[in-house]
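Protocol step 4 of 5: obtain the predicted structure for the target chain.
Materials: sequence only (see below). No template structures provided, no constraints applied. The aim of this step is simply to have a reference model before the mutagenesis design in step 5. Sequence pasted as it appears in the construct record:
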Amino acid sequence: MIKRLMVLAVFAALTACSSDSSNETPPAGNTTTGTTTTGDNGGGDNGGGNNGGGDSGGGVTPSGGLPGVWIGPNDFGEAVMIIDSSDNVYALAADGAGQNYEAVFGPASSQLEYFSHLSSSDTATATSFRLAGDRPAADAPQNKTYNLVVENDGQQIRNTAAATGFQMNLANLNDQPAISVADVVGAWSANTSYPCGGVNCYLELDMTVAADGSVGGGTDFNSGVFEAGIDGTVSAANGSSQYLTLSFSWNGTNRNGVMYVDRNDTSRIIINTVGPDGDSNASFTARLTR
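Step 4 output (structure tokens):
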């Protein structure tokens, strides 16, 4: 119990230090609508190689509604927005400078939570942006609102909310490759870092996927100072071959989200998950290399 609380404290401190650091420096076709409720901004990074990730091209049949993998600029930057078969949003966007990222989660018909992920502070060792996302500043909107409309026979999605408006396109298999559990079997890792007390602190994520979809591994803070295990599963998504669903427990809390091929480097995968952190939620998001 003591170790669990200590690791939670480290993860909270990571978020706090990260926040301090950031302060320093209509077409033809069928139409489907869905609303979501008020906030601000989002995050993803890049990589390099070959992960054997499924199909590399071809069309994707529109769902006829909001579900799908959507790509293009959102209200924060260049994004991948996954909407699952239950209309839950899992979005990750990168700003134009590649320095800040934003993760967005929630039901498409309700309030969306969003978290900022800054680039790791030690660029010599980093393989991903920071694992722990920062919640919005106290004086900023705490949630986002989307009003999503599907147009052009299901090929485009538009957010008509005044504060966060954008338009994205349905990703085909050239845009966002197919992925299966078999594609991701193996050991993956993400090396991240953030400034604390005038030096860099390091948080490494190791994630191993077995052929049956079971997920193991854990996080390691500052080379063994604090460690916390991961135990979960990854499985095929309902209605899409372009992402997998990911659920796992970490340090006594549950995280749920998606796993998909990094569009910028198909040797890497991205996990974008969210789960409880004290009295609220926190994002647990990274780019992983095998």
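Step 4 remarks: Residues 2-24 form the longest helix (23 residues). The chain is about 10% helix and 45% strand.
Proceed to step 5.
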